């Protein structure tokens, strides 16, 4: 038996045969050409066909994994049109008189290596995207379309699966994903979580022939057992059986309140990125939507979404949720979420740069358009407004001034809206947490964004797999900060929630409840298991040490 270990991306047990997928399976030959113009036109046609494939792939992925996660394929379309990328391909064809496949392969390698050598982890991830689009265009040129899984069901194993590969697999035939490279925050990892498929990344190079071997993927521990012995197989089959039984039991949580044994009601909400995600929210019986990432309405487009476009989406979500709370986070463009038409300057430290509320306060026309759409939608449901990346009291007051301007304009035009719309801010910077006692007097609620709070507090990039250990070792510092925010909210009489990844960590649920958290907002698929945990918890009986010792 061979045991390998990586980082768990999505928990679960999968048992079956391994199917090895080579993400760079093109053996490109170099040969001389006679007609440069014909070869360039051949590549152009292949690029256009690849873009059509990506458009189709995007539409399919929206249904499967939601608009937010599908957006990577819109980005891939734009990358194909990148002038530097296209110029490089054409230049190689012209100067070396060589075939398009070779020119593409050389350009793809050059650009991928350039991105991979950058210090910024987000930019390093773009290396995979370049390889992905290059392979796609070469596939069109060579008419190699072998992307299918012939086996009935298989554990997909690769060096580092590309997003397009991950989404194109028939979900019914995929038992699990395992990759030798990759971080827990890679596109493939995010897609695997969204698809509810057990996944492990970062196993390191495997020096053995494993294609077709019988294996077990333990997404709970991050281990893979290849050619498992009898005792391991029995133990894993028992664990899988318990997992499946637990899923059935969780269905009994539907229709029940998210309330602790001692009677405290916890609002158990869901995070979404698009209208397409609402079905999952309703299917998993969430109490509401705690984070609607509105920036995904802006990504993958060539121009700003209009007020009517935004209003239509917000209104539909509000109507579908039928009176349940929907918290819409205002535009959070910048850092790792870029849209070319914003014409943002290149920044050395984009995560610390011109983003979110900073951008909105400077480009008030864009901000007011979104606020009008949100306010108009508030007439059709229980809509709340939330502002990201707040660091100062002045920012809160400026936002409120703009909000009042928009309210006045709507009233003058006799357009209906909720005049008392709930107004909150995200606590995702150390400054906001430390100033929370002051900020609490100005807002109706806090929502703690732990993803950014962790990286800003610990000075570590959460997408860098080499720094995962810091996120674990520094957790007590983050929890202490959460305690401070909870005390500030309680003293001011406002509610406080968590909408970051930590909200779904059931090892921390008791701490959150004892600290005074009123709301937890998580991925829709985590709702029922978290409700079960909440309903089994008696806050009164929890030791004060669970909070005081941190």
Please explain how this structure is put together.
- By secondary structure, the chain is an alpha/beta fold.
- The chain starts with a strand and ends with a helix.
- Helix 3 (72-80) crosses helix 6 and helix 4 (83-96) packs across helix 5 (100-116).
- The protein folds into three domains: 26-142, Enzyme I, Chain A, domain 2, CATH 1.10.274; 154-250, 3-Layer(bba) Sandwich (Glucose Oxidase, domain 1); 256-548, TIM Barrel (Alpha-Beta Barrel).
- The chain is globular and about 75 Å long.
- The strands form two sheets. The protein has an eight-stranded mixed sheet. An eight-stranded parallel β-barrel has the order 9-10-11-12-13-14-15-16, surrounded by four helices.
- Helix content is 46%, strand content 15%.
- The protein is built from 22 helices and 16 strands.
- 42% of the residues are buried.
Describe the structure concisely:
The chain has 550 residues and is α/β, with parallel strands linked by helices. It has helices spanning 36-65, 67-70, 72-80, 83-96, 100-116, 121-142, 163-168, 187-194, 230-250, 278-283, 307-321, 356-362, 364-377, 393-412, 430-434, 436-439, 450-458, 468-473, 475-492, 509-515, 527-535, 545-548; strands at residues 2-5, 7-10, 13-21, 154-158, 174-179, 199-201, 214-218, 223-226, 267-272, 288-293, 325-329, 383-387, 422-427, 445-448, 495-498, 519-522.
């Amino acid at each position: 038996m061979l045991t390998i270990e990586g980082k768990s991306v999505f928990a679960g047990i999968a048992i079956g045969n391994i199917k090895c997928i080579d993400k760079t399976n093109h053996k490109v030959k170099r040969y001389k050409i006679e007609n440069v113009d014909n070869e360039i036109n051949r590549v152009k046609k292949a690029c256009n066909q690849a873009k059509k494939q990506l458009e189709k792939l995007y539409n399919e992925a929206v249904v499967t994994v939601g608009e937010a996660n599908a957006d990577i394929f819109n980005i891939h379309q734009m990358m194909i049109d990148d002038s530097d990328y296209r110029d490089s391909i054409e230049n190689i064809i012209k100067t070396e008189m060589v075939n398009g496949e070779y020119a593409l392969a050389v350009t793809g390698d050059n650009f991928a290596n350039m991105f991979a050598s950058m210090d910024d982890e987000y930019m390093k991830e773009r290396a995979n995207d370049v390889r992905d689009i290059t392979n796609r265009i070469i596939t069109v040129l060579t008419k190699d379309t072998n992307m299918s899984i012939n086996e009935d069901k298989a554990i997909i194993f690769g060096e580092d699966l590309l997003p397009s590969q991950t989404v194109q697999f028939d979900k019914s035939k995929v038992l699990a994903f395992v990759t030798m490279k990759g971080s827990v925050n890679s596109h493939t990892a995010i897609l695997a979580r969204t698809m509810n498929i057990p996944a492990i990344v970062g196993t390191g190079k495997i020096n053995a022939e494993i294609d077709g071997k019988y294996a077990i993927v333990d997404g709970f521990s991050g281990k893979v057992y290849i050619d498992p012995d009898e005792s391991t197989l029995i133990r894993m089959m028992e664990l899988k059986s318990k997992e499946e039984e637990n899923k059935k039991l969780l269905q009994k949580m539907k229709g029940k309140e998210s309330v602790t044994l001692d009677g405290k009601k916890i609002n158990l909400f869901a995070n979404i990125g698009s209208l397409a995600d609402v079905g999952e929210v309703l299917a998993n019986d969430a109490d509401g939507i705690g984070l609607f990432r509105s920036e995904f309405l802006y990504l993958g487009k060539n121009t700003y979404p209009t007020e009517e476009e935004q209003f239509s989406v917000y209104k539909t979500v509000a109507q579908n949720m039928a009176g349940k709370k929907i918290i819409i986070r205002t535009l959070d463009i910048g850092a790792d979420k870029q849209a070319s038409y914003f014409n943002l300057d290149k920044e050395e430290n984009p995560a610390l740069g011109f983003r979110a509320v900073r951008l909105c306060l400077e480009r008030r026309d864009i901000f007011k358009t979104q606020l009008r759409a949100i306010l108009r939608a508030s007439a059709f449901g229980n809509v709340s407004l939330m502002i990201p990346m707040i660091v100062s009291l002045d920012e809160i007051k400026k936002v409120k001034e703009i909000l009042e301007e928009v309210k006045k304009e709507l009233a003058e035009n006799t357009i209906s809206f909720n005049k008392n719309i709930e107004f909150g801010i995200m606590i995702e910077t150390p400054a906001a947490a430390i100033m929370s006692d002051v900020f609490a007097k100005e807002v109706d609620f806090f929502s703690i964004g732990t993803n950014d709070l962790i990286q800003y507090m610990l000075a570590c990039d959460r997408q860098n797999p080499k720094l995962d250990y810091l996120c674990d070792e520094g957790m007590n510092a983050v929890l202490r900060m959460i305690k401070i925010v909870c005390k500030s909210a309680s003293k001011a009489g406002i509610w406080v929630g968590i909408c970051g990844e930590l909200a779904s960590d059931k090892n921390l649920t008791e701490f959150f409840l004892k600290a005074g958290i009123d709301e937890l907002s998580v991925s829709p698929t985590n709702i029922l298991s978290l409700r079960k945990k909440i309903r089994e918890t008696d806050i009164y009986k929890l030791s004060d040490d669970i909070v005081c010792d941190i």
